[in-house]
Amino acid sequence: MKENLKPDFYRHLSLSAVGGFFGAYAMLCHSDMLASAQTMNLLELLMATLRGEPRAILLHVGALLIYVSGVMLTVLLPHWLGISAKRAVPVIDAMAAIILGLLPDSVFGFVALYPIFFAMSFQWSAFSGARGYSSSSIFSTNNTKQASLAVAEFISDGDRKHLGKAFFFVMTLLAFHAGAAVSFFSVRAFGIKGAWCNLLLIGASFAAILYEERAAALVPEAE
Q1: Distance between CA 171 and CA 97 in Å, rounded?
Q2: What is the rounded CA–CA span in Å between residue 58 and residue 161?
């Protein structure tokens, strides 16, 4: 498990906490919906289409386009402007948190999720994992699957390398849900403006990103 204790691992955990905060915040404050992925949005888009609800169709198409634009910009920003997508992640996350806290109560709940759709799609596309593992920092399904598989593989053949994999994914899940817990207490204390509490987690993720960059620069041949 010591191989996990590297700069990219700490960066991954810090971003997972940010993702957990945004995921819980969306559920607590707006529409009770996870705005970090597209599965629910696309299903609701289909249902709205089948029911013939033009307004709902437009709202869900808007969310899809925003999510897709976040993914695409991780490629286009470096290509067009030479901007590091990885360094842009905490900036975009911070902007989303600030906007969420400023939105008036009159803004329709689903529309208020648009900043999260954009920020989380950008974050996930810029950082797809760490330590050689593909791992999302914005939702938990595959992380739960991979942790379960690693435990089963260890039980099956007794190879301790599987414990390192299990440790990585379990820690990712813990970081994600720690961020969600921070979101819960932030919203309880400050309501919608509790989104600004995520700036603390985002600041920690920015420090972790810089730490990873510096470590890589000192050891260019590192994995």
Answers
A1: 24
A2: 48
